[in-house]
Specification:
The complex is a heterodimer. Chain A is mostly helical. Helix content of chain A is 63%, strand content 0%. Residues 1-10 of chain A have low confidence and may be disordered. Helices cover 74% and strands 2% of the residues of chain B. Chain B is globular, with a radius of gyration of 19 Å. Classes of the chains: A mainly alpha, B mainly alpha. Chains A and B meet through α2, α3, α4, α5 and α6 of A and α1, α2, α3, β1 and α4 of B.
């Protein structure tokens, strides 16, 4: 009997889906934006995405600026880990075999995109457009077109 | 400031960025997916908040320290053709992968190793361009560094002011619809 109750109690606690990620996301993105400006004011550097990964192919950039950006993005992973652990959202998952090709193919396309024209990535949305950099507006338009093509090829096609 | 100290400060700022991004659940790849299926209010709100605050901050930075202010990000290559093309590659990549740069880093921190595979897969793509395509292309395309105020021939505070005001109005209506 006690074994049964143990089994029952083990099955019972189905954790309710945590909704707090979406509760105050605007405040957190405001924090991100303000921190980006503070970093610029404090040390004259801002968050960049794509070019920061060039040290992975041996390019450190002038005055090692890509290396600095790479370290900032290592910090992003650490910060996300801290955020996930403190909010109970950390969940270690190995990649699914069937999704590996999309991760690899997507990753290669991202690698091509970020190096073909520097500043062509998430940087456009969070740093480049607020800087009023024309290249970032062009890149953002390209990003929408590229994403829309893949959407039509994959999800858009699936709808039909 | 020596470089090691600068790297350490960068790591701390990065951790701050990562914490905020994780708590906000920010990912532009997911956001674009939401826009394409007609449910893009959330990502539009988040983008507008980032745009308004950062635009004001970057503009004001130039008055606090003249060495700062507005700067070009990346370059216009081939009169914009390569920016559009690179953007299309990047957009296709993030949609296929399921995460933008911030989204990929965030989800790695959350323990999703799918994004570690994607992250490592950046390398062959970058190596292809850096060591094969760029040496060929670099001699053939024009490189320009242009800011929007320069292109329009209008003072930066006016351009930022108009864009921020427009964004604030847009944000107001998106928030109003939400309420």
């Amino acid at each position: 009997m006690p074994k049964k109750t143990k089994k029952q109690t083990k099955k019972e606690p189905e954790k309710p889906a945590k909704k707090h990620v979406f509760k105050k996301p605007m405040l957190f993105v405001a924090g991100f934006a303000i921190l980006n400006v503070i970093m610029y004011l404090a040390i004259g550097k801002f968050w960049i995405g794509g070019s920061s990964f060039l040290p992975m192919v041996g390019q450190l950039g002038p005055e090692s600026k890509f290396l600095f950006a790479f370290i900032v993005n290592i910090g992003v992973i650490i910060g996300a880990l801290i955020g996930a652990i403190t909010s109970g959202e950390f969940n270690f998952r190995m990649p699914k075999k069937e999704l590996l090709p999309s991760a690899i193919f997507g990753g290669i396309l991202i690698g091509i995109g970020v190096t073909l024209a520097p500043g062509t990535c998430t940087t456009s949305f969070v740093t480049g457009m607020p800087m009023l950099s024309v290249s970032s507006f062009l890149s953002a338009a390209g990003i929408f077109i590229g994403a829309f093509i893949v959407y039509k090829l994959t999800m858009g096609g699936a709808k039909k | 400031m020596n470089f090691a100290a600068l790297l350490f400060i960068g790591l701390l700022f990065g951790a701050g960025f990562g914490y905020f991004v994780q708590r906000a659940g920010l990912c532009f790849a997911h956001g674009m997916g939401e826009i394409f299926i007609g449910k893009g209010k959330r990502i539009i709100r988040l983008f507008l908040v980032i745009f308004i605050l950062t635009s004001i901050g970057f503009l004001v930075s130039g008055y606090i320290n003249p060495a700062l202010g507005l700067k070009t990000i990346g370059q216009i290559r081939g009169y914009g053709f390569y920016n559009l093309l690179a953007g299309m590659f990047f957009g296709a990549g993030i949609f296929w992968n399921g995460g933008c740069i911030l989204g990929t880093l965030r989800q790695m921190g959350e323990g999703n190793m799918h994004f570690l595979v994607a992250f490592i897969s950046f390398t062959p793509g970058m190596a292809l361009v850096v060591y094969l395509l760029n040496p060929i292309l670099e001699h053939g395309y024009a490189v320009q560094n242009i800011l929007l105020p320069g292109l329009l021939g209008v003072a930066a505070p006016f351009v930022t002011g108009v864009l921020v005001a427009g964004s604030a109005i847009w944000l107001y209506f998106v928030m109003k619809k939400k309420a």
